[in-house]
Each structure stands twice: as C-alpha cells, then as structure tokens.
Amino acid sequence: MIKLSLGHKQVPHMGKIKCLLNFYFMNPLISIITPCYNASPFITQTIESVLSQTYPYWEMLIVDDCSTDRSAEIIQTYVERDTRIRYLRTENPSGSPSLPRNIGLQQAQGEYIAFLDSDDAWFPNKLEEQVAFMEAYSYNFVYSDYEKMSWNGARADRWIRVRSVSTYWDILESNEIPCLTVLLHRELIEQTRFRSIPKEDYAFWLEILRKGVKAYNTGKIHALYREAVSSRSGNKWKMFAQQWFVLRKVEGVKWIPSIYFMLIFAYKGFMKYIK
User: Fold this and answer.
1) pLDDT tens-digit profile of 60-94?
2) I need a surface site. Which of 43, 68, 145, 225 has the fewest CB within 10 A?
3) What distance in Å separates the CA atoms of residue 181 and residue 183, rounded to the nearest whole number?
4) Coil, helix or strand at residue 187
5) Segment 99-110 mean pLDDT
6) Which ranges constitute the DSSP H helices of the chain?
7) Which of 100, 3, 17, 94 is nearest to 61 (CA)?
8) The pairing of beta strand 58-64 with beta strand 121-122
C-alpha cells in the first residue's frame, strides 16, 4: 500500500488534486455493512475483528434493526473511539437483515462493498489480501473460504472450502458464496437490493451473476462463521423449502431443472453438513 505524504512542501492546487486522486485509487475505500439485532454478546468481537484489519481504508456501517438489548450502547462506545464506524438505525424492526443491508448500501461511500453480520468475525488480513487479489487479476467480485465456530465462540478447525469460481448456473445448484467473505465492486450492485425473502443473500448474488458476472474464490480462509444453536433436522427441511422457493418463485426455473438442481443441493448440503 502506498501512503500519501505531502509534508511541508508547497504543492500547486492541481498537483494536490492529482496526488489525492492517485491516493484514492491506489487505496480504495471499503464500505463494510453490518446488520445488527440484539447482538450484544457478539458485536464486540465483530467490531474488533474489523479494527484489527491490516487494511485501514474502510468505513463500517452498523445498521441496528431496533435492538432491545445493549447492542446500541456497545456500538456507540466504538463510534466515539473511531470515526470510521457509523451507527444507523431502522425506524421500525424489520425482522430481516435485508432492510439494514439496503440502508447500508444507500449510505455507503466506498468503491468496494463488504458484508459482515454482527455475530461473525474476520481474520486480520481479510481485506488486504482480497483487495490485492482483486487488483492482481482485475476481478470485481471475490469471496473466500471460512471457518465455523460454535455459538459460544469455540473453534474446532472446521474449515469450509467452497468452489473456486461461481457463475449464475453454478449457484443455481447451491450457493457457495459466503456472505461474510464477499468483497465486490459497487458498480456491480447498481440498483440491486436485498429482498425481504428467504435466502435474501442468495437471491442478491443470483441477480448480480445473472448479468454474466463471475465471482472468484481467493482460496484462503478469511472469516469465522458463528453456527446457530437450533434443530438440525428442522433446519434441513427449512433450507430445502427455501431453496425451492428461490428456484421456482424468484428465478422462475421450470419444474424438471428445479428438481435436478435440488438433488445437487441436497447432496452438497449433506457433504457440507457433516464437516
């Protein structure tokens, strides 16, 4: 990374502008969007993982969906400490991360967009390595592998490896783009927004990739995903129903192709589930 230092030297007005433009493009700003609802047990770890990033050119937009716990109080302490962190709040609870993420997208100033939920965390080199990867290969949409942790934060070396390249047709089979690892150029998003539906992030990726875009895996583990405590059997049926909903109702895939995609989804889900 190149740092700009003008020192005490007098620089003509246009020269200053040119220097600042070079600085901006060589160190692009990343907007990190974090939806939050009653995350007081976890939000500190989430924010600290952003503060620990080796890439310092970021803003963090934490959008609170009317939490009733101490989340707002905890976030405000960080807002006072670091001007890169901003606290936003929905007018009414939406019950979904879609509205908070959309508010974050509307307020984002960065050239790149990243997403991090309020109970997950990043490893310190996440942003720096992803920016370097994107710029080295001229990619505009990347993601990474990740590690699972239990609800209480315990780690057991459960690494999840996902496909190296994702196209629209690839993710119709199964969504292997982990939201907490994504970094993409804001020009890809345009007017695309998260919908208040099941698997809102999956539908969001599909809408972007449908334009012929490809997403690329860095091949590195960059994040910690917190696994919810819930009924495994109940979750499987719920996920199956949600996948069918996205295929049939959101994407309009016909019956026979949908059944084919669902069989692949079931197999991959089982293989991922036992890890």
Assistant:
1) 999 999 999 999 999 999 999 999 999 999 999 99
2) 68
3) 7
4) helix
5) 98
6) 13-26, 43-51, 71-81, 98-107, 126-137, 168-173, 186-189, 200-209, 232-245, 255-273
7) 100
8) unpaired
pLDDT digits (tens, 9 = 90+) for 176-191: 999 999 999 999 999 9
270: left (phi over 0), alpha (psi -120 to 50) or beta: alpha
DSSP 138: T
Q: What is the pairing mode between strands 215-226 and 155-160?
A: unpaired
Q: Are 150 and 78 in contact (CB under 8 A)?
A: no
For range 240-268, the mean pLDDT = 95
Task: Answer whether 225's CB lies under 8 Å from 232's CB.
Answer: no
d(CA 198, CA 98): 10
**CA 232: distance to chain centroid?**
24
Amino acid letter, 59: E
DSSP 64-114: E---SSSHHHHHHHHHHH-TTEEEEE-SS--SSSHHHHHHHHHH---SEEE
